[in-house]
Design the sequence.
């Protein structure tokens, strides 16, 4: 059966529909999965070629994780190269797996659909050894409980590919089931930085088959870049209607999540490492932070003042972001953290438009994604101009909380509406615009000058009155005679 | 200089050297009032602007050392409220003693900025407390210019006041302590000083209790803000005393001083740090004595009116002798019995500049407590220092009551400014005022367009008979008078004097700006330098290291460093320190000195006893930063020698030829000292076999590797200015640290193989 407007249906009725909507209407001709190892984010891309094996096959059931696998912090799906919008996930009551229903738009038997699922997993690789010296190589160990991609349908052919940034040192035993019996070759192929598994044939629907055995896998690999994570990211966006300005400020606590440093830091070794062929992978010297095109007057500081070691590169070509090259006050070694703030100004006109009458629509990017960096706690705090009303927020991905409050700053009388949007575990895929609509009538823009004018007039009036009051105890004539 | 032109006698035509436009009197008054206001505003603006070099060049940052504590205290005040601040006990300072901050500081500065902060926030101006602190000194400098104007107007006229305000606004002697970011007590104290003095003069002139109460209130604020309030405490009584001695006692003085003393003393006693000092220490006794004297004098005045003249003479004599003896006896008695504290050592050091060097090395070790060098008078005051005596002389010419004040102030502060560099600040206002008086007199004399006139009202042809009885025509007489009577006749004379005067004013402005820009506007936590291509660069080693401490050490880590850096570590890094800039416990400072000055074996137990986790030293040898710890090292040695004369001896740190050297010829004590080891640890390696030259001392550091056993290098900043070392914990299996270090390096394995292997096993099992 078909669910035409899945998005509009409440989740509960969806779940009840699901139970019966699990017919064997599809099979997978092929699944090829590619796993990018390295950093605190692991990107898993699965390309699925689905074939309908019945007329009106309905929605394609796509599991994001089985019972044992880790739930991705973010994911994207595209069907036949069309990226799908936000789709609610639901728990399959039968198997306990987290699934999404993909409208594959197939009507007849034996039609093909290409589904690409990109998942982002946090902290899937752990440093091993956990503690290393300053000049030692940095190794990570990737471990996963689910080697086979979870699927709700029978799969004819599966291939899995792991790609590490550098050499793969070792890996655990790879699965040897579902291999063609006539095959004499090894079930895996290890070549430098990549490990290929399979092809596996006729793999049953993993989440449906009772007793389906997933095989865990660990991969130990060398890295060339420090493993970074952001503990907290607070982005402040403030709309200035008078100046036509959108100020953005990111407060970041950067953390080197790689192996911890044994002992302490030696400046001498760090300085002489520059003359060696490879620079120690665990040391972070600089990060490049892309900021939107057209950004101006950037700044960079921390709790103890301005940081002079940074460069701003305006976007070289239309469409490209500007770059902030940020060098922390000290090189960031394993286990060290560094808290800082960067900010810049944007032209409000390119980020806000009027959508009929007094109604405005503002787009604010939720965060700036850095490749392979997990944000543990992300927060976007948008301050709208004083007098804005009927504030509504549309987020393109699920968020943990949306809070409204009032914030008072320079020359404010009634305060500005402020929206706080929170999300735990964000990654580069959350670099999307949050849309905020509000009404801002013309008279609201006059509130500030009116208040300032009134305040100054009151001040002068008081001064004028006080200046003309005679506050002497004795009257003027008495004082005069006395002094004479 | 809008002096109204005096009309000629009996409306006669006055001869003018140059034409002046005819303006009605009201217009003149209104215009000059507007001009005064505008000029004063511009002066204040200039005073503020010239203090912003550091903010423009670097950033809005708190400078130097002490301001960091004030800033931290202000943060406590605004974040946790007044009562928390008042009762603040800081466990992170002077570890493990802690410090009762509320009772050991002058809170006026923090309370002032706290009030400003809260008022601004109440009005929805969410200004950061850091910016309030940074901008406080320039803002108050603007107010000081205004206070100086008011003060000088009492001494002379408004045009002199404007000149004095302009001098005060930009004079380097004051700017040195009040640039943006220099958030120290002096930032507001000089304004309070000048304003208290102005109100006092006002009170003494009018005999108004209102002005003397105001003066007392500002005095109370001053007491809360700066230890230098003692200067006012003695200045005002001295003024009164001299007036009484000169027979200028009057009811005005009586009213003014009595109300000032009573209210001012009560106000000053509200500050916890001052408490009962105003009645118990010798520094404050002069004020009390003069208060008593005034009562006596007033009493004698009443008696004189009631008693016949003859009896009065004898009565007076007996009374004076009696009163003096009794007062002195009481004073001596109270002092010996301990009720009144004798002069403090700090006070003695004001009279005998050698005193501190012998008795209180801590005070002597501070550079701003050194006697002032002669050139610094010119550097800080430029031409004002030459005009200053002239102004004082002019005061003698008129010698009104308030002029006496200037004279006393001038004499006292000249002495103090010569004793301590720091007190240069105290002389600056009086120099500005009296220089302005001299300069203004000069300008007025030579700008006055009136040509001295000879009495010409007789007829042209009439004959004048002069003193000698000779008959003369008026023309000839005029010639003669002109030749003999001094005066300024032509425009050329005027220009000849005015041109150099104006030039010197311009030079003064240039000098002030140059000095401010080059000497006084460096935040000292950030060092400015230049890249190879000449572009400006910033050496930010201090903050890099402090930030590292803040982010990557345990929150309760204890940092030992020389006391100069205590406040900065607390402010930047928020970590516990052993000693800081408050000079609170000499023994503690000496302990740190001893740690730095002794070898590892002696220092280690002391380090462990004080729970020290990290040691921080400043080393400038790589880039030539001369304010480093090796250059301060002798003071550490001296101070700790004061406490442990048996263990630390200064001569041991010199070469046999008596030189202070770091190269191969350095004495063994020096080479074994922790300071030497920490500063030069792995320093020669940086030169890759070449000569390791210490750029501060221009000496070659020997290439022998320095071995550290009880500490290990933890962090070194980019230019090696800040070096942080971690103190090792005791060995897990009870070996000595040198042995365990050697074992870890594998150097002593062969010596006793079995024991070490056993040890290793044991260690392994412990871990498991």
Sequence:
């Amino acid at each position: 059966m078909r669910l035409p407007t899945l998005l509009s249906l409440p989740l509960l009725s969806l779940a009840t529909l699901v139970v019966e909507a699990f017919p064997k209407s599809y099979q997978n001709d092929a699944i090829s999965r590619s796993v990018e190892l390295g950093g605190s984010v692991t990107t898993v891309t699965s390309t699925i070629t689905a074939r309908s094996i019945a007329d009106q096959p309905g929605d394609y059931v796509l599991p994001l994780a089985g019972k044992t696998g880790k739930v991705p912090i973010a994911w994207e799906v595209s069907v036949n190269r069309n990226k799908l919008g936000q789709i609610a996930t639901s728990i399959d009551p039968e198997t306990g797996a987290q699934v999404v229903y993909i409208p594959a738009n197939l009507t007849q038997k034996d039609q093909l659909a290409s589904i690409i699922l990109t998942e982002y997993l946090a902290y899937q690789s752990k440093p091993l050894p956990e503690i290393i010296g300053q000049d030692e190589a940095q190794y990570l160990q990737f471990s996963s409980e689910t080697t086979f991609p979870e699927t709700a349908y029978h799969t004819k052919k599966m291939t899995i590919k792991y790609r590490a940034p550098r050499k793969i040192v070792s890996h655990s035993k790879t699965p040897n089931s579902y291999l063609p019996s006539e095959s004499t070759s090894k079930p895996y192929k290890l070549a430098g930085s990549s490990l290929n598994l399979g092809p596996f044939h006729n793999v049953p629907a993993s989440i449906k088959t009772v007793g389906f055995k997933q095989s865990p896998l660990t991969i130990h690999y060398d890295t060339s870049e420090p493993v970074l994570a952001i503990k907290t990211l607070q982005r402040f966006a403030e709309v200035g209607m008078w100046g036509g300005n959108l100020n953005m400020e990111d407060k970041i606590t950067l953390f080197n999540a790689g192996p911890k440093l044994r002992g302490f830091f030696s400046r001498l070794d760090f300085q002489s490492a520059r003359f060696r062929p490879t620079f120690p992978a665990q040391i972070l010297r600089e990060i490049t932070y892309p900021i939107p095109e057209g950004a101006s007057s950037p700044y960079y500081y921390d709790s103890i003042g301005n940081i002079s070691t940074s460069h701003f590169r305006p976007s070289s070509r239309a469409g490209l972001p500007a770059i902030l090259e940020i060098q922390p006050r000290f090189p960031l070694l394993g286990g060290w953290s560094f808290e800082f703030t960067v900010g810049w100004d944007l032209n409000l006109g390119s980020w806000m438009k009027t959508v009929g009458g007094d109604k405005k629509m503002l787009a604010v990017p939720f965060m700036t994604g850095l490749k392979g960096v997990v944000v543990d706690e992300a927060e976007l705090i948008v301050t709208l101009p004083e007098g804005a009303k009927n504030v509504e927020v549309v987020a393109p991905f699920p968020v943990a909380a949306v809070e409204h409050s009032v914030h008072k700053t320079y020359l404010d009388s009634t305060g500005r509406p402020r929206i706080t949007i929170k999300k735990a575990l964000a990654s580069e895929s959350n670099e999307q615009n949050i849309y905020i609509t509000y009404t801002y009538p013309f008279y609201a823009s006059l509130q500030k000058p009116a208040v300032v004018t009134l305040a100054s007039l009151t001040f002068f009036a008081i001064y004028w009155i006080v200046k003309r009051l005679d506050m002497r105890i004795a009257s003027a004539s008495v004082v005069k005679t006395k002094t004479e | 200089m809008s002096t109204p032109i005096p009309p000629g006698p009996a409306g006669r035509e006055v001869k003018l050297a140059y034409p002046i436009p005819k303006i009605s009197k009201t217009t003149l008054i209104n215009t000059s009032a507007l001009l005064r206001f505008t000029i004063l505003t511009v002066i204040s603006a200039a005073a503020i602007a010239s203090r912003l070099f550091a903010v423009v060049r670097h950033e809005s940052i708190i400078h130097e050392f002490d301001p960091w504590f004030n800033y931290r205290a202000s943060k406590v005040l605004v974040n946790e409220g007044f009562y928390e601040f008042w009762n603040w006990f800081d466990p992170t300072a002077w570890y493990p003693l802690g410090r009762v901050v509320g009772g050991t500081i002058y809170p006026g500065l923090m309370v002032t900025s706290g009030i400003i902060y809260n008022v601004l926030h109440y009005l929805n101006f969410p200004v950061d407390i850091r910016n309030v602190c940074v901008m406080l000194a320039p803002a108050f400098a603007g107010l000081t210019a205004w206070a100086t104007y008011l003060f000088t107007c009492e001494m002379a006229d408004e045009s002199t006041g404007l000149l004095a305000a302009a001098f005060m606004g930009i004079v380097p002697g004051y700017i040195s302590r009040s640039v943006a970011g220099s958030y120290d007590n002096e930032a507001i104290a000089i304004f309070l000083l000048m304003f208290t003095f102005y109100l006092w003069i006002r009170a003494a002139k009018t005999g108004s209790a209102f002005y003397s109460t105001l003066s007392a209130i500002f005095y109370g604020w001053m007491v809360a803000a700066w230890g230098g309030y003692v200067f006012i405490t003695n200045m005002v009584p001295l003024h009164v005393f001299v007036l009484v001695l000169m027979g200028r006692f009057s009811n005005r003085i009586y009213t003014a001083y009595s109300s000032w003393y009573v209210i001012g003393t009560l106000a000053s006693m509200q500050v916890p740090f001052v408490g009962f000092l105003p009645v118990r220490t010798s520094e404050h006794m002069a004020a009390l004595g003069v208060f008593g004297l005034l009562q006596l004098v007033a009493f004698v005045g009443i008696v004189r009116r009631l008693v016949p003249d003859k009896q009065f003479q004898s009565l007076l004599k007996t009374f004076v002798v009696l009163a003096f003896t009794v007062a002195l006896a009481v004073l001596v008695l109270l002092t010996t019995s301990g009720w009144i504290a004798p002069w403090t050592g700090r006070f003695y050091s004001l009279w005998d500049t050698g005193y501190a060097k012998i008795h209180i090395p801590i005070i002597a070790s501070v550079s701003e407590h050194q006697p002032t060098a002669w050139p610094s008078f010119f550097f800080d005051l430029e031409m004002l220092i030459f005009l200053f005596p002239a102004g004082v002389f002019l005061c003698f010419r008129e010698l009104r009551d308030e002029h006496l004040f200037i004279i006393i102030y001038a004499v006292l502060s000249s002495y103090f400014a010569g004793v301590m560099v720091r007190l240069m600040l105290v002389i600056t206002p009086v120099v500005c005022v009296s220089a302005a008086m001299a300069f203004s007199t000069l300008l007025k004399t030579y700008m006055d367009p009136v040509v001295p006139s000879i009495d010409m009202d007789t007829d042209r042809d009439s004959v004048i008979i002069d003193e000698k009885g000779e008959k003369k025509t008026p023309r000839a007489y005029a010639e003669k008078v002109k030749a003999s009577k001094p005066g300024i006749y032509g425009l050329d004379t005027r220009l000849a004097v005015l041109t150099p005067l104006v030039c010197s004013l311009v030079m003064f402005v240039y000098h002030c700006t140059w000095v401010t820009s080059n000497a006084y506007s460096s935040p000292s936590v950030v060092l400015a330098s230049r890249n190879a291509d000449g572009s400006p660069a910033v050496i930010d080693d201090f903050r890099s290291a402090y930030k590292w401490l803040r982010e990557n050490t345990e929150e309760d880590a204890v940092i030992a460093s020389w006391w100069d850096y205590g406040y900065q570590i607390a402010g930047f890094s928020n970590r516990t320190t052993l000693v800081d800039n408050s000079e609170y416990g000499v023994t503690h400072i000496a302990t740190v000195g001893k740690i730095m000055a002794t070898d590892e074996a002696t220092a280690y137990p002391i380090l462990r006893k004080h729970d020290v986790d990290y040691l921080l030293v400043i080393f400038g040898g790589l880039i030539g930063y001369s304010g480093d710890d090796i250059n301060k090292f002798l003071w550490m040695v001296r101070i700790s020698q004061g406490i442990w004369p048996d263990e630390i001896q200064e001569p041991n740190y010199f070469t046999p030829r008596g030189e202070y050297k770091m190269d191969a010829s350095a004495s063994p004590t020096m080479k074994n000292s922790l300071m030497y080891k920490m500063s030069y640890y792995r320093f020669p390696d940086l030169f890759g076999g070449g000569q390791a030259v210490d750029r501060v001392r221009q000496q070659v550091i020997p290439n022998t590797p320095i071995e550290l056993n009880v500490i290990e290098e933890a962090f070194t900043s980019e230019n090696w200015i800040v070096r942080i070392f971690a103190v090792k914990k005791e060995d897990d299996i009870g070996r000595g640290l040198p042995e365990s270090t050697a074992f870890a390096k594998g150097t002593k394995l062969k010596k006793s193989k079995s024991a070490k292997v056993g040890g290793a096993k044991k260690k392994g099992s412990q871990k498991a």
